[in-house]
Design brief:
The chain is an alpha/beta fold and about 375 residues long. The protein is built from 13 helices and 13 strands. It has helices spanning about 65-70, 75-80, 95-100, 110-120, 165-175, 200-205, 220-225, 250-255, 260-280, 280-295, 300-310, 320-330, 345-355, and strands at about 5, 30-35, 55-60, 85-90, 105-110, 125-135, 140, 155-160, 190-195, 210-215, 230-235, 245-250, 310-315. Helix 5 crosses helix 12 (about 320-330). The longest helix has 20 residues, at about 260-280. It is globular and about 60 Å long.
């Protein structure tokens, strides 16, 4: 397994509906924005690979630290030589999946639920997960005056980013394991699950309309800064304290026609993750600088410092945890059982890892044949 030291991020992932409900990705909207900074500059005079450019999507979130730092520091562009990067910033998983499935995007950094959604929606014909990127960064933050123990969550109003999104599914599974009942469609039951956009959650928390939230970073740290208390870190619920939060996915057409470009991008992501681990403070500043460039406002130190510590960047896609998250959505009756056979193709990643002297990673039996 190729994993990195803890870092923090903003885990904004989600799900669109598959079958009755396609898994969707949570975020802050659905628009895509093209970047024209040094992230996309091709090296003048360098030999191009089989494509003159590669269009790469990502979220302006800390959970996408590999993309943020890789673009900001030019580490991915360096591996592509004369092939230009065309970065596109997305605020929600559904729009990024639509771009990938529609052919206007080649590669994307995205969460597990939208990865599953995109694969299922295309009937297994369009997307492949080719690498991991990040793990962790999700917490249950509560009003300490109203909730002091895990059992106190019963009867309270707890926000998740979106119905059927990755955090929503995890929270519904946790509720079920407590023996409590909640209708997954309405969110009503022994706990009131209030689906709330992460942009709105901090204000809802301050106003008292919710008693807590099961959310990704940096929303979790924003709630703590507003007086909340971390009641549970989702990392503690997983074996080895790891679960996928961000993958790297690629359209099958682009992978087939431009494998050399995909391999170059993966060399860049592997080197970026290595640089992040070797330079955690510089990497945090680099990610914040990219967030500022994307949105015009960097994260405050009291938010980014604790958030940065709660995520792990990793080349390993942690495939068994993606399967578990899918099973949870089925258990909650949010989706029908998807066929995930072939969702991974880690051939190029393992080639890159081997060349770098790093251990290869597993697709947990879900690899392309």
């Amino acid at each position: 397994m190729s994993a990195a030291r803890p870092l923090t991020t903003l885990r904004a992932i989600a799900v669109t509906a598959a079958l009755p409900l396609l898994l969707t990705a949570c975020g802050y909207g659905s628009e895509a924005k093209k970047d024209d900074d040094k992230a996309g500059a091709a090296a003048t005079g360098d030999k191009k690979l089989s494509a003159s450019e590669v269009r790469i999507g990502y979220f302006p979130n800390l959970t996408h630290a590999t993309a943020l730092v890789g673009f900001q520091e030019g580490l991915i562009a360096k591996e592509l030589g004369g092939t230009a990067i065309k970065p596109q910033s997305f605020n929600a998983g559904p729009s990024e999946i639509e771009a990938l499935n529609g052919g206007s995007l080649d590669i994307g950094f995205i969460g597990p639920s939208p990865s599953i959604n995109g694969y299922v929606k295309s009937k297994s014909t369009n997307l492949r997960i080719v690498s991991g990127s990040a793990s962790g960064g999700v917490k249950l933050v509560v009003n300490p005056d109203k909730i002091k123990t895990l059992d106190d969550v019963k009867g309270k109003k707890i926000a998740t980013p979106q119905k059927g999104n990755t955090q929503d599914v995890a929270f519904l599974n946790w509720i079920a394991e407590k023996g409590w009942k909640v209708d997954p469609e309405s969110g009503k039951g022994d706990v009131s699950v209030v689906r709330t956009d992460n942009k709105v959650t901090p204000d809802a928390f301050k106003q008292g309309s919710i008693d807590g939230a099961w959310v990704p970073e940096p929303t979790a740290s924003k709630l703590v800064a507003d007086g909340g208390s971390v009641l549970l870190d989702e990392t503690d619920l997983w074996p080895d304290k790891k679960f996928v939060i961000t993958n790297v996915i690629v359209s099958q057409k682009f992978l087939k026609e431009h494998a050399d470009v995909v391999e170059a991008v993966l060399r860049g992501t592997v080197k970026t993750n290595e640089w992040i681990n070797a330079n955690p403070d510089k990497a945090k500043a680099s990610a914040n600088a990219k967030l500022e460039a994307d949105g015009g406002k960097p994260l405050d130190a009291k938010v980014i410092d604790p958030a940065w510590k709660s995520i792990l960047v990793t080349d390993d896609p942690l495939a068994t945890t993606l399967k578990t998250e899918s099973d949870w959505a089925v258990k909650a009756k949010l989706i029908e059982q998807p066929d995930l056979a072939g969702i991974y193709d880690l051939t190029l990643l393992n080639k890159v890892l081997k060349a770098a002297g790093k251990p290869e990673v597993s697709d947990a039996g879900l690899g392309a044949k």
